[in-house]
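Page 37, continued from 36.
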């Protein structure tokens, strides 16, 4: 079985990290300040997308603030947030976010069968109504860059207008940071018991 270390982000031909974490002594004052702020916040470390984003410390700080709200303060239930993040990670073939958030989704109450279906690119079956509404909206936005009236209406009924806005923003946020890591080839961190994503058949 392939491991996270030998499957590049976005299934790039190479695993070479283009933007590794720089030592503190090589950071500019602005980069050091941004890194210290991240370490002092809920994330507690500079990892994942924040490693390449540190090349633009002001951008990293602002992106970090948006992500902190969407992950930790959103009106959406943690189960819905983690499931939507898994959809974004699968869509972008990003191993880091998949291996970070698939276990969190499971811990938040998402069924293993639902996580497996998302990993395989299948529509999960037997989900709770709110999970189905969230995934329908997320999948349509990812694949079609918009959504149908039935999917919108179901999400609106389930989450309200604020929840719909935050769900779409959450998906967009994670696509963005996945793209940054895919370009930088930021290495994933393996999780015991969780397999990395596999490419879809050509």
């Amino acid at each position: 079985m392939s491991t996270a270390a030998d499957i590049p982000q976005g299934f790039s031909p190479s695993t070479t990290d283009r933007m590794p974490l720089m030592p503190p002594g090589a950071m500019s004052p602005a980069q050091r300040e941004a890194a210290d702020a991240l370490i002092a916040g809920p994330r507690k470390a500079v990892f994942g997308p924040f490693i390449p984003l540190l090349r633009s410390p002001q951008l990293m700080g602002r992106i970090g603030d948006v992500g902190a709200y969407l992950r930790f303060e959103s009106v959406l239930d943690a189960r819905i947030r983690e499931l939507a993040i898994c959809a974004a990670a699968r869509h972008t073939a990003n191993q880091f976010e998949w291996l970070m958030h698939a276990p969190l989704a499971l811990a938040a109450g998402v069924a293993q069968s639902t996580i497996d279906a998302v990993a395989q690119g299948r529509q999960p079956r037997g989900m709770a109504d709110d999970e189905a509404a969230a995934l329908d909206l997320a999948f349509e936005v990812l694949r079609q860059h918009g959504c149908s009236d039935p999917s919108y209406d179901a999400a609106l009924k389930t989450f309200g207008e604020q929840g719909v806005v935050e769900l779409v923003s959450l998906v967009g946020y994670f696509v963005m940071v996945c793209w940054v890591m895919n370009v930088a080839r930021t290495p994933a961190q393996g999780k015991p018991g969780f397999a990395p994503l596999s490419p879809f058949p050509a």
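Residues 25 and 32 are 9 Å apart (CA to CA). Flag for discussion at group meeting. The chain is about 60% helix and 0% strand.
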